[in-house]
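Internal tracking record. Fields below are filled automatically when a chain is submitted to the structure queue. Please do not edit lines marked as system-generated. If the sequence contains nonstandard residues, flag them in the REMARKS field before resubmitting.
Queue: standard
Priority: normal
Entity type: single polypeptide chain
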Amino acid sequence: MSEPLPSLLDHALAHEAAHAEFVYLTQPLGDGRVVHYTWAQLMDEARRMAAHLQGRGFEPGSRIAILSKNCAHFIIAELAIWMAGHTTVAIFPTETAETVRFVLEHSEASLLFVGKLDAWPQQAGGVPMGLPRIALPLAPENDFEGWDEVIARTPPLPGRPRRAPDDLAMLMYTSGSTGTPKGVMVSFAAITRAGEGIAQDLRGRVGQDAPNRMLSYLPLAHSFERSWVEAFTLVDGRTQVFFAESIDTFVQDLQRARPTLFISVPRLWLKFQQGVFAKMPPARLDRLLRIPLLGRLVARKIRRGLGLDEVVMAGSGSAPIPAELIAWYRRIGLALYEGYGMTEDSSYSHSSSAEFNAPGYVGVPMAGVQVRLSPEGEILIKSPGQFTGYYKRPDLDADAFTEDGFFRTGDLGERRPDGLLKITGRAKELFKTAKGKYVAPAPIENHLNAHPMIELALVSGVGQPSAYAMVMLAEHLRPRTSDAALRQEVQAALTQLLEDVNRRVSDYEQLHMIVVAREPWSIENGLLTPTMKIRRHRIEAAVGADVERWYASGAKVHWA
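SYSTEM-GENERATED OUTPUT FOLLOWS
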């Protein structure tokens, strides 16, 4: 009988032996202080916590939850959970008490690790009475047992713990733009094959032996970061992971890490660009970049200022990114490529490269991924990272797959003969105007998001004479919107933008007006998901009473 393929846990155990002194994780402690964890150190802590978890007598495969921002002990705790024979349930650190309670009760969690958090006093009420808790280092003030206390008194779990390919490694609760979170069941085989495929992809670009650095700051509770940072680095073993301390220190965190590999989401790529524009107007920067020698110097200075001057490969995922934004980053010398994936395939689906990329396309299938389009244009995926099903929801499983095992993504797309895939919209987001034709909002939103004054956009208009757009202004503009001169400038720019966008879309997709959002959309006010995608229905509901008045006025630009 052949030896089973290795799991992520097997990879980590191999690094413990082969790369014992390599610094894998670097955690900021505040005031410029950091602590480094070598493979030997972190695996020793994980083994001690695993022994403690086994000693508590939980049934094999019990769900152990982690509520924490990204930190070194998120990964160490996950390794401990796996060594002990259990399943990880990670909860987004920005979730409300209501959602925290739902996830803990729905998953039947046996224990909760509480880590680095900003809103623990508001979340604590969501933890069921009697659920055991352990505080990770950097946790808010609490009165429950601490990680350091446990490992100080517990001998390490010996030997080489193994997990079967079909064992459940993690339950990933989708953040979702609507509805109740769904528990996506991910086996060890799925997350490991995804991590190995990503390692093959990234190592093919940056070289097999070069040590790499990454900054982990997108939520580890989300599939994108879990696969492309944690799973990849657990497989790779020679990539150092740095963690961000806080939003306020993000630039310093980047400067400290000087990543060679960097992934982000479209909203943050836009914010980085707008931060540059706040210091130098786009037109002036454009002129400087056109000058051969000076342009290269300016581009290098921008990359250095962002902390991205040593990046060999940068990626964008989780949501569509404007093609113009990718072109801008490449113009300043950053190799930015878009990819495509989702929780249900462990974010292992499509990736762009120097050989296979085009504006507006998300790349070609990654190794082992099969893809086809349904007669309706829906993208169907069969991935080595494919999930097992939805936890306690067999009714959803029946609709999720085709008869031959392809996952129905719900995304609509087009494919070129060379395999490049273009996302044209999401089936559930399509809406009809009074003209009777379906409008796909995402491509129009991308046109709007490419404008330097706009950070995020939403296109809506169900049953209206035509669609409309609501936009959130760039961060550096928002505090100054009471200034009459600035308002006039913004009004003129958005009126021109409206005309430009309407020239680029079909007549039935043309926008009636642009509305400037009254308040920023954020995770905290529930208008963005934890991965910073817009919660479409909540934003539409918030302005529902005003829409008819806006249409009736006939104005092209409104201030909500």
